[in-house]
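Quick log. Single chain, no ligands specified.
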Amino acid sequence: MTESETPVGDRIAVGLAALGRPAYINLGRVDALPPGRGFEAMRAATYDVLDDAYRAGVRWVDVARSYGSSEEFLAGWLADRGHPDVIVSSKWGYRYVGEWKLDAEVHEVKEHTAARLAEQWTESLGLLGKAISLYQVHSLTVDSPLFTDDRLIGALAELAADGVPVGFSTSGPSQTDAVRRAFELEVSGTPVFSAVQSTWNLLEPSVGPALAEAHAAGKRVLVKETVANGRLVVEPPAPLARIAREHGTGPDAVAVAAVLAQDWRPIAVIGPSSTVQLAENLGAANVKLAEGELAELAALAEDPVAYWRHRSCLGWH
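-> predicted structure:
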Protein backbone atom coordinates (compact mmCIF):
# COMPACT_ATOMS: atom_id res chain seq x y z
CA MET A 1 0.00 0.00 0.00
CA THR A 2 1.37 3.40 -0.93
CA GLU A 3 0.82 6.74 0.76
CA SER A 4 -1.44 7.90 -2.07
CA GLU A 5 -3.69 4.91 -1.39
CA THR A 6 -4.05 5.87 2.27
CA PRO A 7 -6.07 9.10 2.38
CA VAL A 8 -6.68 8.69 6.13
CA GLY A 9 -3.03 8.16 6.97
CA ASP A 10 -3.02 11.33 9.02
CA ARG A 11 -5.87 9.93 11.13
CA ILE A 12 -4.23 6.63 12.02
CA ALA A 13 -1.54 6.11 14.64
CA VAL A 14 0.46 2.97 15.29
CA GLY A 15 0.59 1.97 18.94
CA LEU A 16 3.42 -0.21 20.23
CA ALA A 17 1.65 -1.78 23.23
CA ALA A 18 1.75 -5.21 21.58
CA LEU A 19 5.35 -5.00 20.34
CA GLY A 20 7.24 -3.32 23.15
CA ARG A 21 6.97 -6.23 25.59
CA PRO A 22 6.55 -10.00 25.26
CA ALA A 23 3.16 -10.30 27.01
CA TYR A 24 -0.03 -8.34 26.44
CA ILE A 25 -3.79 -8.90 26.54
CA ASN A 26 -4.47 -8.87 22.78
CA LEU A 27 -6.18 -11.94 21.33
CA GLY A 28 -4.79 -13.27 18.06
CA ARG A 29 -1.32 -12.00 18.92
CA VAL A 30 0.65 -15.12 19.79
CA ASP A 31 1.19 -16.52 16.29
CA ALA A 32 1.91 -13.07 14.84
CA LEU A 33 4.97 -12.45 17.02
CA PRO A 34 8.52 -13.79 16.59
CA PRO A 35 9.07 -17.23 18.13
CA GLY A 36 10.27 -16.91 21.69
CA ARG A 37 9.62 -13.15 21.69
CA GLY A 38 13.21 -12.33 22.55
CA PHE A 39 14.26 -8.72 23.01
CA GLU A 40 16.13 -8.33 19.70
CA ALA A 41 13.46 -10.19 17.76
CA MET A 42 10.78 -7.89 19.15
CA ARG A 43 12.91 -4.87 18.31
CA ALA A 44 13.25 -6.10 14.71
CA ALA A 45 9.50 -6.76 14.48
CA THR A 46 8.85 -3.23 15.75
CA TYR A 47 11.15 -1.75 13.12
CA ASP A 48 9.41 -3.76 10.38
CA VAL A 49 5.96 -2.54 11.46
CA LEU A 50 7.14 1.06 11.74
CA ASP A 51 8.81 0.91 8.32
CA ASP A 52 5.65 -0.41 6.66
CA ALA A 53 3.47 2.09 8.50
CA TYR A 54 5.66 4.98 7.41
CA ARG A 55 5.60 3.81 3.80
CA ALA A 56 1.81 3.65 4.04
CA GLY A 57 1.61 7.29 5.10
CA VAL A 58 1.19 6.88 8.86
CA ARG A 59 3.10 9.53 10.77
CA TRP A 60 1.91 9.08 14.37
CA VAL A 61 3.37 6.55 16.82
CA ASP A 62 1.95 6.01 20.32
CA VAL A 63 4.04 4.49 23.11
CA ALA A 64 4.14 4.44 26.93
CA ARG A 65 6.60 3.96 29.76
CA SER A 66 4.78 0.73 30.66
CA TYR A 67 4.91 -0.71 27.15
CA GLY A 68 8.14 -2.50 27.97
CA SER A 69 10.87 -1.18 25.66
CA SER A 70 8.53 0.61 23.25
CA GLU A 71 10.14 4.01 23.79
CA GLU A 72 13.62 2.52 23.37
CA PHE A 73 12.61 0.70 20.19
CA LEU A 74 10.99 3.83 18.75
CA ALA A 75 13.97 6.01 19.67
CA GLY A 76 16.33 3.61 17.92
CA TRP A 77 14.13 3.46 14.83
CA LEU A 78 13.90 7.25 14.64
CA ALA A 79 17.67 7.57 14.99
CA ASP A 80 18.27 4.94 12.30
CA ARG A 81 15.68 6.19 9.83
CA GLY A 82 15.95 9.93 10.41
CA HIS A 83 12.27 10.70 9.82
CA PRO A 84 11.72 14.27 11.09
CA ASP A 85 7.96 14.26 10.44
CA VAL A 86 6.93 11.51 12.86
CA ILE A 87 4.58 12.59 15.65
CA VAL A 88 5.20 10.79 18.94
CA SER A 89 2.84 10.48 21.88
CA SER A 90 3.79 8.70 25.07
CA LYS A 91 2.23 8.04 28.46
CA TRP A 92 3.31 8.04 32.08
CA GLY A 93 1.68 6.62 35.20
CA TYR A 94 2.37 2.90 34.83
CA ARG A 95 5.77 1.29 35.33
CA TYR A 96 6.67 -1.92 33.48
CA VAL A 97 7.77 -4.58 36.00
CA GLY A 98 7.37 -7.72 33.89
CA GLU A 99 11.15 -8.12 33.40
CA TRP A 100 10.51 -9.46 29.90
CA LYS A 101 8.84 -12.59 31.29
CA LEU A 102 5.76 -14.10 29.66
CA ASP A 103 4.58 -15.52 32.97
CA ALA A 104 5.32 -12.54 35.20
CA GLU A 105 2.91 -12.36 38.13
CA VAL A 106 2.59 -8.60 37.64
CA HIS A 107 3.39 -6.81 34.37
CA GLU A 108 2.82 -3.16 35.29
CA VAL A 109 2.22 -1.01 38.35
CA LYS A 110 0.13 2.15 38.36
CA GLU A 111 1.00 5.33 40.27
CA HIS A 112 -0.39 8.79 39.56
CA THR A 113 1.87 11.05 41.61
CA ALA A 114 4.03 14.09 40.94
CA ALA A 115 7.12 12.03 41.75
CA ARG A 116 6.21 9.38 39.18
CA LEU A 117 5.52 12.08 36.56
CA ALA A 118 8.91 13.69 37.18
CA GLU A 119 10.69 10.33 37.04
CA GLN A 120 9.00 9.07 33.89
CA TRP A 121 9.07 12.38 32.03
CA THR A 122 12.85 12.41 32.53
CA GLU A 123 13.04 8.86 31.18
CA SER A 124 10.82 9.58 28.18
CA LEU A 125 12.64 12.81 27.39
CA GLY A 126 16.00 11.05 27.59
CA LEU A 127 14.94 8.55 24.94
CA LEU A 128 12.70 10.56 22.62
CA GLY A 129 13.57 14.19 23.32
CA LYS A 130 11.82 16.80 21.23
CA ALA A 131 10.07 14.11 19.16
CA ILE A 132 7.42 13.91 21.91
CA SER A 133 4.40 15.88 20.73
CA LEU A 134 1.95 14.70 23.40
CA TYR A 135 2.53 13.37 26.93
CA GLN A 136 -0.46 11.60 28.47
CA VAL A 137 -1.57 10.43 31.90
CA HIS A 138 -1.94 6.69 31.47
CA SER A 139 -5.41 5.29 32.24
CA LEU A 140 -6.99 8.15 34.15
CA THR A 141 -10.08 7.00 36.05
CA VAL A 142 -12.55 8.91 38.18
CA ASP A 143 -10.96 7.55 41.36
CA SER A 144 -7.42 8.60 40.41
CA PRO A 145 -5.64 10.64 43.09
CA LEU A 146 -4.69 13.06 40.32
CA PHE A 147 -8.00 14.89 40.66
CA THR A 148 -7.21 16.00 44.21
CA ASP A 149 -3.42 16.34 43.93
CA ASP A 150 -2.71 20.04 43.42
CA ARG A 151 1.02 19.39 43.18
CA LEU A 152 0.55 16.91 40.34
CA ILE A 153 -1.96 19.10 38.54
CA GLY A 154 0.46 22.00 38.81
CA ALA A 155 3.31 19.91 37.42
CA LEU A 156 1.21 18.90 34.43
CA ALA A 157 0.22 22.51 33.82
CA GLU A 158 3.87 23.53 34.01
CA LEU A 159 4.79 20.91 31.44
CA ALA A 160 2.07 22.23 29.13
CA ALA A 161 3.25 25.79 29.68
CA ASP A 162 6.74 24.69 28.63
CA GLY A 163 5.32 23.71 25.24
CA VAL A 164 4.59 20.00 25.69
CA PRO A 165 0.90 19.27 25.02
CA VAL A 166 -0.53 17.26 27.90
CA GLY A 167 -3.32 14.71 27.60
CA PHE A 168 -4.72 11.63 29.28
CA SER A 169 -6.00 8.19 28.36
CA THR A 170 -9.03 6.53 29.92
CA SER A 171 -10.25 3.02 30.62
CA GLY A 172 -13.16 1.39 32.42
CA PRO A 173 -16.94 1.72 32.42
CA SER A 174 -16.81 5.29 33.78
CA GLN A 175 -14.72 6.76 30.97
CA THR A 176 -17.35 9.40 30.22
CA ASP A 177 -17.14 10.84 33.73
CA ALA A 178 -13.34 10.77 33.68
CA VAL A 179 -13.16 12.62 30.35
CA ARG A 180 -15.54 15.36 31.39
CA ARG A 181 -13.98 15.81 34.82
CA ALA A 182 -10.43 15.94 33.44
CA PHE A 183 -11.24 18.64 30.92
CA GLU A 184 -12.62 20.79 33.74
CA LEU A 185 -9.20 20.96 35.42
CA GLU A 186 -7.59 24.38 35.14
CA VAL A 187 -4.61 26.21 36.60
CA SER A 188 -4.87 30.00 36.66
CA GLY A 189 -7.79 29.81 34.26
CA THR A 190 -5.92 27.69 31.69
CA PRO A 191 -7.08 24.13 30.95
CA VAL A 192 -4.50 21.51 31.91
CA PHE A 193 -5.34 19.00 29.19
CA SER A 194 -5.54 19.47 25.43
CA ALA A 195 -6.01 15.85 24.33
CA VAL A 196 -7.72 12.61 25.29
CA GLN A 197 -7.20 8.98 24.26
CA SER A 198 -10.11 6.71 25.19
CA THR A 199 -11.23 3.19 24.49
CA TRP A 200 -13.92 3.30 21.81
CA ASN A 201 -14.89 0.41 19.60
CA LEU A 202 -17.98 -1.29 18.23
CA LEU A 203 -18.46 -3.21 21.48
CA GLU A 204 -17.73 -0.29 23.82
CA PRO A 205 -18.78 3.08 22.35
CA SER A 206 -20.21 4.58 25.57
CA VAL A 207 -17.62 7.38 25.81
CA GLY A 208 -18.57 8.68 22.36
CA PRO A 209 -20.71 11.65 23.50
CA ALA A 210 -17.94 12.90 25.80
CA LEU A 211 -15.39 12.58 23.01
CA ALA A 212 -17.71 14.50 20.68
CA GLU A 213 -17.85 17.28 23.28
CA ALA A 214 -14.07 17.28 23.53
CA HIS A 215 -13.70 17.55 19.76
CA ALA A 216 -16.21 20.40 19.65
CA ALA A 217 -14.17 22.19 22.33
CA GLY A 218 -11.03 21.96 20.18
CA LYS A 219 -9.39 19.07 22.02
CA ARG A 220 -7.43 16.42 20.18
CA VAL A 221 -9.21 13.06 20.33
CA LEU A 222 -7.55 9.66 19.94
CA VAL A 223 -9.25 6.27 20.16
CA LYS A 224 -7.48 3.14 21.39
CA GLU A 225 -8.41 -0.55 21.50
CA THR A 226 -10.18 -0.10 18.19
CA VAL A 227 -10.59 -3.87 17.70
CA ALA A 228 -11.44 -4.56 21.36
CA ASN A 229 -8.12 -6.22 22.19
CA GLY A 230 -8.56 -8.54 19.24
CA ARG A 231 -12.09 -9.70 20.10
CA LEU A 232 -13.53 -8.14 16.94
CA VAL A 233 -11.02 -10.04 14.82
CA VAL A 234 -10.79 -13.42 16.55
CA GLU A 235 -14.52 -13.70 17.29
CA PRO A 236 -16.26 -11.08 15.10
CA PRO A 237 -20.03 -10.73 15.59
CA ALA A 238 -22.00 -12.02 12.61
CA PRO A 239 -23.02 -8.57 11.28
CA LEU A 240 -19.41 -7.38 11.37
CA ALA A 241 -18.16 -10.52 9.61
CA ARG A 242 -20.82 -10.16 6.91
CA ILE A 243 -20.14 -6.47 6.29
CA ALA A 244 -16.43 -7.23 6.06
CA ARG A 245 -17.08 -9.95 3.47
CA GLU A 246 -19.26 -7.60 1.46
CA HIS A 247 -16.43 -5.05 1.39
CA GLY A 248 -13.86 -7.71 0.54
CA THR A 249 -11.82 -7.05 3.65
CA GLY A 250 -11.33 -8.23 7.22
CA PRO A 251 -13.34 -7.37 10.33
CA ASP A 252 -10.46 -5.33 11.74
CA ALA A 253 -10.53 -2.98 8.73
CA VAL A 254 -14.26 -2.47 9.17
CA ALA A 255 -13.87 -1.89 12.91
CA VAL A 256 -11.21 0.77 12.33
CA ALA A 257 -13.26 2.30 9.50
CA ALA A 258 -16.15 2.66 11.96
CA VAL A 259 -13.88 4.68 14.24
CA LEU A 260 -12.81 6.92 11.37
CA ALA A 261 -16.44 7.44 10.37
CA GLN A 262 -17.33 9.20 13.63
CA ASP A 263 -18.28 12.86 13.28
CA TRP A 264 -15.87 13.84 16.05
CA ARG A 265 -12.88 12.99 13.84
CA PRO A 266 -10.80 10.78 16.13
CA ILE A 267 -7.31 9.54 15.41
CA ALA A 268 -7.51 5.74 15.44
CA VAL A 269 -4.67 4.10 17.34
CA ILE A 270 -4.09 0.61 15.96
CA GLY A 271 -1.88 -1.93 17.71
CA PRO A 272 -0.63 -4.50 15.19
CA SER A 273 1.67 -7.31 16.27
CA SER A 274 3.10 -7.83 12.78
CA THR A 275 3.30 -6.27 9.34
CA VAL A 276 0.48 -8.57 8.22
CA GLN A 277 -1.82 -7.27 10.95
CA LEU A 278 -0.75 -3.72 10.12
CA ALA A 279 -1.73 -4.15 6.47
CA GLU A 280 -5.07 -5.65 7.48
CA ASN A 281 -5.77 -2.74 9.86
CA LEU A 282 -4.80 -0.16 7.25
CA GLY A 283 -7.37 -1.67 4.92
CA ALA A 284 -9.74 0.66 6.78
CA ALA A 285 -8.54 3.44 4.47
CA ASN A 286 -10.44 1.83 1.60
CA VAL A 287 -13.65 1.01 3.48
CA LYS A 288 -16.47 3.52 3.19
CA LEU A 289 -19.34 2.42 5.40
CA ALA A 290 -22.91 3.34 4.46
CA GLU A 291 -25.26 4.82 7.04
CA GLY A 292 -27.20 1.58 7.22
CA GLU A 293 -24.02 -0.39 7.88
CA LEU A 294 -22.94 2.03 10.61
CA ALA A 295 -26.35 1.69 12.25
CA GLU A 296 -26.12 -2.09 12.12
CA LEU A 297 -22.62 -2.00 13.62
CA ALA A 298 -23.74 0.41 16.35
CA ALA A 299 -26.21 -2.23 17.51
CA LEU A 300 -23.27 -4.45 18.53
CA ALA A 301 -22.57 -2.29 21.61
CA GLU A 302 -22.41 -4.14 24.90
CA ASP A 303 -23.21 -2.89 28.37
CA PRO A 304 -20.03 -1.03 29.46
CA VAL A 305 -19.80 -2.83 32.80
CA ALA A 306 -20.10 -6.21 31.10
CA TYR A 307 -17.57 -5.23 28.45
CA TRP A 308 -14.94 -4.21 30.98
CA ARG A 309 -15.62 -7.27 33.12
CA HIS A 310 -14.96 -9.43 30.06
CA ARG A 311 -11.80 -7.48 29.25
CA SER A 312 -10.45 -7.99 32.75
CA CYS A 313 -10.68 -11.75 32.19
CA LEU A 314 -8.67 -11.84 28.95
CA GLY A 315 -5.36 -12.35 30.73
CA TRP A 316 -1.83 -11.62 29.51
CA HIS A 317 -0.56 -13.79 26.66
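Residues 39-55 form the longest helix (17 residues).
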